[in-house]
Write a structure and sequence with these properties.
Layout: H1 13-26, H2 31-37, H3 44-55, H4 66-79, H5 83-88, H6 95-120, H7 137-145, H8 153-164, H9 169-184, H10 206-213, H11 220-225, H12 229-232
This protein binds a DNA duplex through helix 3, helix 5, helix 6 and helix 7.
Length: 243
DNA sequence: AAATGGGTCAACCGCCCTACT
DNA sequence: GAGTAGGGCGGTTGACCCATT
């Protein structure tokens, strides 16, 4: 028997619905199992990723709020590129989302900052080679990750150690963060923790809305029939990029 | 109107950790 | 304790979208 090749690339609506159904059935674990029994030609990892980053109920969509932005800054300055950890403090946001946000927004800010610094100090002397910072948080990540992935004071120590050696990126990030706080006129209070959440209504995944309204109301038997998937093609959820 | 560049986001890859045998 | 499989995580890539030239 020829083993069918594992599917890659963008998910279809049909796949999404299948995945949602089977996750609902078996829970958010055993991804390999779900991948197999669902008939999706995907890896367990792929299924998990799709669920976590896109299909999970309670996911927020849209731009980060100023509060969230500040929280990301605050937590990143504390933990570095521990995206999943940071994400846990931002209900409805995924590590991927935060990572993307950080990369685009902070890189931009770093560039602006760098430009501003180079302008203001163009007549100055301190043009150390280190000022040619890598415009990417990965540099910081490498520094912070150190030899272990364990988050701890050790990491902080490592960072400080690097800083002491004159590695400027941390200062740059700190400055960015503090200028963010200044410009917003607010200092974020770390009042958001497990168990607490933002007060605004979560914007759930559109697919979830659909499923919640229709799929999950079906009884067990109807579920088994998995509703005519072809009907679902009529359902056009906004951010699908299916060809 | 076409070209281009930057921003956004979904998805994959590879490494690491953990639980299980 | 060693080996293995599954899952989690961070980094990276590439396609799409939109604004600007």
């Amino acid at each position: 028997m020829v083993k069918e090749e594992t599917r890659k690339g963008p998910w279809t609506e049909h796949e999404d619905l299948q995945l949602v159904y089977y996750v609902n059935l078996f829970g958010e674990r055993r991804w390999d199992f779900i991948a197999k029994v669902s008939g999706l030609n995907r890896t367990g990892k792929s299924c998990r990723l799709r669920w976590v980053n896109y299909l999970h109920p309670g996911l927020k969509r849209g731009r980060m709020t100023p509060q969230e932005e500040r929280l990301v800054l605050e937590l990143h300055s504390r933990w570095g590129n521990r995206w999943s950890r940071i994400a846990r403090k931002l209900p409805g946001r995924t590590d991927n989302e935060i990572k993307n946000y950080w990369r685009t927004h902070m890189r931009k800010k770093a560039q602006e900052r760098k430009r501003a610094l180079s302008l203001s100090s163009s007549s100055c002397c301190s043009t150390s080679p280190n000022n040619d910072i890598p415009i990417d948080s990965s540099a910081k990540a490498k520094t912070e990750e150190g030899t272990s992935s364990k988050d701890s004071e050790e990491v902080k120590g490592k960072v400080n150690e690097e800083g002491a050696k004159g590695y400027p990126i941390d200062r740059i990030w700190d400055e960015i963060a503090s200028s963010e706080e200044m410009s917003s006129g607010l200092v974020y209070e770390s009042c958001i923790d497990e168990g607490n959440s933002f007060s605004y209504a979560p914007l759930t995944s559109p697919l979830w809305d659909y499923c919640f309204d229709s799929l999950w109301r079906m009884d067990e038997e109807e579920n088994k029939m998995l509703l005519p998937m072809s009907d679902l093609s009529a359902y056009n959820y906004g951010h699908s990029r299916e060809p």
